[in-house]
Task: inverse folding
């Protein structure tokens, strides 16, 4: 509904306003979803001949691949891209710093900061005992030099501070908004969007090798609404959601295998599994973490069938919890699986597999007390004999019976099988 309203307003605004500035909000970790949203926003801005695209940014960083896709879209845009770190208290760390340097206009709100652009995984010192230390060091140097060259080219393209950009990568330096303006890292500071547009009005910027002048004072701000596909992608690529989908898939398929024909658990498990695999294909994950989760579930299942002292169950919970924490790297994605969520799923899994499933297994192996199967093993008495069949009194009812042994009236017999209304019996030795 919001999407339809947004498109409707786009068709009407040119009749009442001199220019349109399309605003898109990028909050949280940079990933495939944010890259898609930015590309869609730029496409819409081009189609509607917007004066500029305004990115309201607040991010701890994210995937380098998605960041580079976004930077390519910004640097090749035929309309100006204004990146504004807001609201107060927001930050543009890691990948956010690169986006600021790539934008045609870089602005920040008071009380915000940027920096720490070193790839986190490269900041960890290598272990000296590792036989591949020299190879790792070379790989780290290559990655850091590539990051330095990349942010340097962005700084040179938009006439911004190159020295500090290099320090942000090499030493993970950060700056407040005021210091960033003083060092020519950003172009201006604005308290809000209205103040930002007033300061930008009449400003000249470089755009694809040419100089253009912004006219933003009388522009109308219109917020871009992502379509349902982008919102869906944003949801499933959240590490917490991907983690939950993965566990639903595992449990659903397990329930279906334990109780064939239930259908519902299997269907839910397969659908969740497909979505989880799609999400894991979009965001990097740790194979060791996934293996530990599977191993933890396997241990807890084994605890149900193996009588012991709970060692398998405890080991399963520990493996499950560690695997959940290792599944996604917070430094790479900008966020990871919530610790309370991991604890909750670990305890619920332990309670389910060791308590509920044990009761379920016991109930399946218990003696049948109702239905046709309950007749097998029952004791009856022969009350009538004839040439082909006998009559047996069992559970207060008279049944036709057959036997491979010779029977006598008044003899006690035990039911061996039941075929419809006929019992197969055998005599009980006195």
Result:
């Amino acid at each position: 509904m919001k999407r339809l309203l947004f498109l409707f307003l786009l068709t009407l605004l040119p009749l009442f306003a001199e220019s349109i500035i399309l605003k898109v909000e990028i909050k949280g970790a940079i990933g495939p979803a944010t890259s898609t949203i930015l590309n869609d926003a730029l496409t819409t801005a081009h189609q509607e001949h917007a004066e500029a695209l305004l990115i309201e940014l607040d991010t701890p960083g994210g995937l380098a691949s998605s960041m580079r896709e976004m930077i390519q879209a910004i640097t090749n845009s035929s309309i100006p891209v204004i990146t504004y770190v807001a609201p107060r208290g927001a930050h543009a760390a890691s990948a956010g710093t690169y986006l600021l340097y790539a934008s045609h206009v870089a602005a920040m709100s008071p009380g915000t900061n940027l920096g720490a652009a070193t790839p986190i995984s490269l900041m960890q010192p290598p272990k000296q005992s590792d036989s591949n230390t020299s190879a790792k060091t070379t790989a780290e140097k290559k990655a850091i030099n590539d990051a330095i060259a990349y942010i340097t080219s962005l700084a040179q393209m938009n006439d911004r501070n190159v020295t500090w950009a290099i320090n942000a990568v090499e030493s993970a330096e950060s700056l407040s908004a005021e210091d960033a303006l003083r060092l020519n890292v950003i172009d201006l500071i604005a308290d809000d969007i209205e103040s930002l547009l007033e300061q930008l009005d009449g400003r000249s910027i470089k755009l694809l090798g040419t100089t253009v002048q912004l006219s933003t004072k009388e522009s109308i701000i219109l917020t871009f609404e992502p379509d349902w596909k982008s919102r869906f992608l944003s949801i499933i690529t959240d590490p917490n959601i991907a983690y939950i989908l993965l566990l639903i898939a595992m449990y659903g398929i397990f329930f279906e295998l334990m109780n064939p024909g239930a259908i519902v658990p299997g269907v839910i498990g397969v659908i969740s599994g497909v979505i989880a695999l799609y999400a894991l294909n979009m965001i990097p994950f740790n194979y060791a973490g996934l293996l530990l989760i599977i191993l933890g579930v396997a241990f807890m299942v084994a605890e149900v069938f193996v009588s012991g002292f709970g060692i398998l169950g405890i080991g399963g919970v520990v493996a499950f919890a560690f695997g959940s924490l290792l599944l996604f790297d917070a430094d790479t994605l900008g966020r990871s699986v919530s610790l309370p969520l991991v604890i909750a799923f670990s305890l619920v899994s332990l309670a389910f597999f060791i308590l509920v499933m044990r009761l379920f297994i016991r109930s399946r192996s218990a003696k049948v007390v109702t239905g046709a199967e309950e007749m097998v093993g029952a004791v009856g008495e022969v009350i009538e004999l004839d040439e082909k069949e006998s009559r047996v009194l069992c559970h207060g009812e008279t049944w036709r019976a057959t036997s491979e042994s010779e029977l006598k009236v008044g003899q006690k017999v035990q039911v061996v099988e039941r075929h419809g209304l006929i019992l197969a019996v055998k005599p009980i030795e006195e």
User: Anything to note?
Assistant: The CA atoms of residues 151 and 409 lie 101 Å apart. Residues 121-133 have pLDDT under 50 and may be disordered. The radius of gyration is 35 Å.
